[in-house]
Structures are given as structure tokens and as C-alpha cells.
Amino acid sequence: MRLSAIGDVCHAVAMVTRIQTQWPDAHITWVIGKVEHQLVKLMPNIRFIIFDKKRGKAAVKDLKQAVKGEVFDALLMMQVALRANLASRVIKAKQRIGFDWARSKELHWLFANKRISANQHAHVLDGFMGFADALGVPSVDKPAWRIPVSNEDREWGLQQAKALGNYVVIAPAASKAERNWLPEQYARIAEYIQNNNVNVILCGGPGSLDRETADAIKQRAGVTLQDFTGKTSLHQLLMLLKHAALVIAPDTGPAHMATTVDTPVVGLYAHSNPQRTGPYNNLNDVASVYDECIKEQKGKAWQELPWGARAKGDTLMQRISFEQVKEKVHPYIA
Hints:
Elements: H1 6-22, E1 28-33, H2 34-40, E2 46-51, H3 57-66, E3 72-76, H4 82-87, E4 93-98, E5 114-115, H5 124-135, H6 151-164, E6 167-170, H7 183-194, E7 199-202, H8 208-220, E8 226-227, H9 234-242, E9 246-250, H10 253-260, E10 265-269, H11 274-277, E11 287-288, H12 290-298, H13 322-333
Parallel strand pairs: 1-2, 3-4, 4-5, 6-7, 6-9, 7-8, 9-10, 10-11
Helix pairs in contact: 1-5, 1-10, 6-9, 7-8, 7-13
Keywords: Glycosyltransferase, Transferase
GO molecular function, one term: ADP-heptose-lipopolysaccharide heptosyltransferase activity
Pfam families: Glyco_transf_9
């Protein structure tokens, strides 16, 4: 059971792929959010149950009906939110595996009868792998992701890549405005990239923050940027990310989607620890001011604080300099 969000679902896919690889005969049911399902809906040999949280109690009623009469060997409770914990009560399972004590927020521990092993300072993806460990699934050398797309979307992606040539994707908008870099800084890095003969495209979802952020960047850039914001399905976006030379993004879904298709990512971080939530394959490529922000606010280094401690403030991302990002971007476009 992992309902949201896109980035976390990408991390969960690695764990599911491990189970499918090592236990190919396993029967998997995934309770997942409505939007997130659009990304993974073509994964083979998985029964999806869509949980639309906007429907409130009706969503729980639908889930109860969907699993009526079933008893699962194990329920992997991979979300600590109280909404997910309460919904999980309608699922009958011999083992109800939850997070370890340190990560059991919002009364999560009350709904589990078994816990994964503690893993101090673990990336979210590695934390999810603890659920496969608890089941006894053999380990793998490194995470792998299998997110199929249709032939139509694959061909669409190839056509876009051919038209765009060598390009970098900027996915500038996180779910909250405070987690976004300044539009003028995005514009500067876009100019720098295009002045190195690499095209830049903007991507994002259909929400108003994504649209406003993309427009603000285009207004400030001294070069023409192609804009796919709000114009793609999740699978089309995945294909755009797949063929890119690089993705630049804050802590947002497209950064983690890019990781699933082996595209390098320069992540931008201030509020959350990139060692916990950064792009898994590019943790050394982040432009981060998190360490200094959290120490200023808490008086201690993050290593001395509870794992997952967040820095707060509306202007923290402004502390990421153009030069920081340029230094990380340069090797991929030189």
C-alpha cells in the first residue's frame, strides 16, 4: 500500500521490481493513488486498486469491497499518513508490515504487527527496500525500475527527441512554491546551457504553480525555451526525461522519474536532506544548502537530529547560487 506521491511511487517501483525479479510467481496487489496509477498502470502482473483520496470515506468503502473475502499473506504498509493507516484496516493480512519505530509517525505502529528493520540515515528508496527484506526477498546488487509505456508513447518520445536534438529538461516546480528555485536563476541556467549549444525544455504538470513558474522563467530568459508544461501525460513526460542529457529539478516527481530511466539529475535542495530524498543515482550532483540551513535553525548538524528533519522558511531556496548549479550542470553539457 503506497498511495502517493509520484517520487515515492518511483522509489516503491524499485522494491516491487525486486520482488518480481526474485519471486516471479508472487501475486502482487498494489493500492495506489489515482494520479500515481497513471505512471505505473502498465507494469505487468500487478493488480492495481485505485484509492482516490478525494472521495474520502467512499474511497475506503470501495477498497473494502475490492478486497472482500481476501486474506493476503502480507500487507506492506509503506505510507505512514493517518489516512492510509485508517484505510488499511479494511485489508485482511497475516502479516501487516510497517515502518520501524523511528519512522512510525501518525500512530502508524498501531496498525502493524511486524516492523521493518531500523536503518539510520537511509534514503527513502533504501527504506522501502526494508519491506522486501522483511518478506525475505533475496537482495539485488542495485535497484532497477521497470515502468512500461505504450508503443505510441515510446514513438512520441523518439519523435520529440529527434526534433529537439541534444537537450536538457528543467522541471522547475515542486508541490509548494517555497521549494522552488527563483525563476530568474532558472532563466540564467537555461541561457548558460543553450549558449553551450544544448537545447532547454520546460516540463511540469497541469497545476497553476507549474504554469506560473514556467511562464516566469520564459519571461526572464534571453533565449527561447520550448515548453511542455501541462501538455504531456505522465508516460510522455517519462519519455521526454528518458531522452534528455540531464534533468534539473527541485525535490519533485520528475526528478525521480528521470532516475527510473537512467537520466542524470541535478537536484536543488534546501528544505529536505538530499541524502534522504535526493535523486537516488545522483546524490553527489545535488546543489544543496540544506546542511547550513538546518544547522542554523536547529543548532546541530543533521547527523545529530532525527532523520528527516526539515528546514523551514519561504526564502531558503534563494540561497542556492547560480554558480553552485552551473558547477554541477557543466560536466553534462561540456
